[in-house]
Amino acid sequence: MKTKEEILKSFPKNPDYIIEILHALQDNNPYNYLTPEDIKLCAEYLDLPVSYVEGVASFYSMFSLKPRGRYVIRLCDSPPCHLVGSESLLEYLEKKLKIKVGETTPDRLFTLELTSCLGVCAVAPAMMINDEVYGNLTFEKIDKILEEKRGNL
Amino acid sequence: MPERAHILLCAGAACISAGEESFKSALERELKEAGIYDEVKIIETGCFGTCDLGPVMAIYPEGTFYVKLKPQDAKEIVNEHLLKGRIVERLLVKEPEQKQALPTINDLPFFKNQVRIALRNVGFIDPLNIEEYIARDGYSALAKVLTQMSPEDVISEVKKSGLRGRGGAGFPTGLKWELGRKASGTEKYVVCNADEGDPGAFMDRSIMEGDPHSVIEGMLIGGYAIGAKKGFVYIRAEYPLAIKRLTSALEQARNYGLLGDNILGTDFSFDIEIRIGAGAFVCGEETALIASIEGKRGMPRPRPPFPVNSGLWGKPTVINNVETWANIPPIIINGADWFASYGTEKSKGTKVFALAGKINMTGLIEVPMGITLREVVYNIGGGIPNGKKFKAVQIGGPAGGCIPAEYLDTPIDYESITALGAIMGSGGLIVMDEDNCMVDVAKFFLSFTQDESCGKCVPCRVGTKRMLEILDKITKGEGTEEDLVELEQLAYTVRNTSLCGLGKGAPNPVLTTLKYFRDEYLAHIRDKKCPAKVCTALIHYEVIREECRKCSICFRNCPVGAIYKDEDGTYVIDQSKCTKCGICFQVCPFKAIKKE
Amino acid sequence: MKKLTLEDLKKIKEKTQAELEMRSPEGKDKIVVHMGTCGIAAGARETLLAILDEIEKRGLKNVVVTQAGCIGLCEYEPLISVQKVGGPKVLYKYVTPEKARKIIAQHVVNGQVVSEDVLSTE
Hints:
Largest sheet of chain C: 5 strands, mixed
CATH topology of the largest domain in chain A: Glutaredoxin
Oligomer: heterotrimer
Strand content of chain C: 15-25%
Radius of gyration of chain A: 17 Å
Number of domains of chain C: 1
Number of helices of chain A: 7
Number of strands of chain C: 5
CATH architecture of chain C: 3-Layer(aba) Sandwich
Organism (chain C): Dictyoglomus turgidum
Shape of chain A: elongated
CATH architecture of the largest domain in chain A: 3-Layer(aba) Sandwich
Strand order of the largest sheet of chain C: 2-1-3-4-5
Order of helices and strands of chain A: HHHHEHHEEEH
Largest interface: A-B, 37 and 55 residues
CATH superfamily of the largest domain in chain A: Glutaredoxin
CATH superfamily of chain C: Glutaredoxin
Protein name (chain C): (2Fe-2S) ferredoxin domain-containing protein
Shape of chain C: elongated
Structural class of chain A: alpha+beta
Distance between the termini of chain C: 53 Å
Number of helices of chain C: 4
Helix content of chain A: 40-55%
């Protein structure tokens, strides 16, 4: 893992890199979120007010200001997925993980979120876990994927 | 030793998510086992477009097209096809009606009826190999522009081609470039809008994954034409694979000196940077996109000034979307007249559409403008599955509209689609059949835009919310006819007064469904019925006493214990407990449960 | 890597174009090697490799080589068929690697059917 200073230094000291920097800081955190310290360091590095950086971080849905799980599950909730049953998958995931959308499992392994279209509509319903996209989802397939992720630890 | 076969394996996001990688390793293993690994070449390409058949591959020179591949199929393909030259019939595409297997990629009506310009290389070359792009005339448009054409020549060629912005609004590309060239200032920018957020649209992703160099070359030519030295690609974070492929293509282009200083030995210098979004749909709007590249909250601002005069950091900026950029190199090589020979009078060339929803062949197609919706849905898309009836097609994403069956023969071009109340948009086509409730569809699209509203202007932030509340009421059977009047008024207000395209387009699904499917709204309001049997509050399940064989399957599967046995052993649903989940309806082996 | 010149661009194009030829089989001469179990047992693989090698040596661009299964004439294996654009399909019998090279030189390149090895002509 890189130190926060190393991450910051890999970007030019230019305010328009703020989103890239926030992505990098968030990806570096095992719990996939931006800590108050991250926000402060980023503000100092770019010479911006902390409120400005927090404003940007809170605007974009992919940034989180509270801890998330190691794996962020983003279930696609756009119309093509909706038409083929993403709603029942959401219920299934909620039941299986025993959490609601936006929450994290107590073991801090999974966070459940919804996302806008992942652009793989032909294999709908789909979801993304961190950077990986899974299509043609069924209850059984979800079971298998979650098991795999658990086994990865 | 030359290879005796090229295996083109689709490595688009859809095929990857359907298991392309594990198939590939199985294939490699089998090839090694059979001792012919060095005789064939595996090329991972971009999206073929037949995404619902994935993972897919084509084996050349024959062009045999295999679909729905599983790792366990690899052995048979190697032993039968590659060793013995026998086609593996069971892995071919079957025509939905004839059940006849189609051996080669060119036999498929899906491919036969397409004209691929923007997608010319997608699914045919290795996107990670710049030399394959060069072999297919890649970067020769750039060479031609830099050595034989003045920036004005380039602009007039693009103007003459009639190319219009493929991102949605259809602004003439050549004119935009001309305004950019004439805008005062020495520092100018070109931007590629790759924030493809419309649900159901994935052509830009596919181009970036399958042919990233065509976007780079298009931007280089645009940069030369308007006098920019720098370009940005703004790409959404939901597309990690496209980001990866584009990043590596940029690196290659830089290594080959096709980006950087003094390109191809001329005094033209240009470079491109990628900027990644972070999950905000509104950033596809150009002023919001600019704010986001500048590192701000991605909120739109009123226009004018237009970005072409005051864009990134207040400098003149030409913004085009991915598909538009990918069309530029062929226009330069083959000429404006060639491009303009496709399409209609006002909409030239081709358009890429993403077919999704209730259609046999979902995926990506490129067709000449002016083709009818019927040809797309039936000839290319193979019609509606399970013998159901076509009801409507939502065109243009959440800002578009629903077009009903009576307009199936409308030619697809910017003007005709707009006249029906929809928009061309980025080209998402979501097909709906008789089982879809149009009120529910309108509600769903509106809830999407409502959710993605950035909150800056009142009509969009509050207006869409009020509209959504009314729709919610109607789907619950609590709506009145006055609600319909108010809904319509609100829709017009939001459309006319919102700040940016997101708000202006948000009411379109509601307005078009009100226009074409008013009777469905009225059925929800007057009869408290959902004709398509979708809105849960308006349907109920009942056991048909005469059909019930007392097998108890419904009883055992009901998750809420709403089914009980009456005196003679027949099962009955307690309506006060029923949550209308539909499980009993699905599990009953005797079709003894009715849904009304 | 040094910067590309217009000349380099052309060279890369020509070189890679040849490699991509395989993916557009229309309008080309076709050689089909029959590779059923019988053909393979009779040495069809060696024949195939010789054909590919000869094509590369001669720099032939307008030829595609494919494989097909057994056509029931197992006693004549290895069998290959050659069809020039616009010409008839000629089936050759007992095609050893040496014969294959001769067929390419005489039939594919010069258009003269190697009559002593012909089994049938369609």
